[in-house]
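[job 4471] stage=fold_predict status=RUNNING
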Amino acid sequence: MATSTDQSAVAPAAAAPVPVAIPVRKVMPWAVLGSLLMCLAYYFVGAEQGATSVVNGMGVHEYVHDARHLLGFPCH
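[job 4471] inference complete, writing structure tokens
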């Protein structure tokens, strides 16, 4: 038994995606915020519990202890 193909059942070819331009004006505040947060995290991992300690005690040091070793900071 022969079957015929129905041309209306064939899906049309998808249109190529068009890249969207993101203006630097909209990205820059998020890039600055992300950079500041990364610098703050780097400070707490690398410099906290040193000469420039902001938080008293060993809580921050113990919380980020493994990250200190991962990044190569000496701590003991």
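[job 4471] summary: The chain has three helices and no strands.
[job 4471] exit 0
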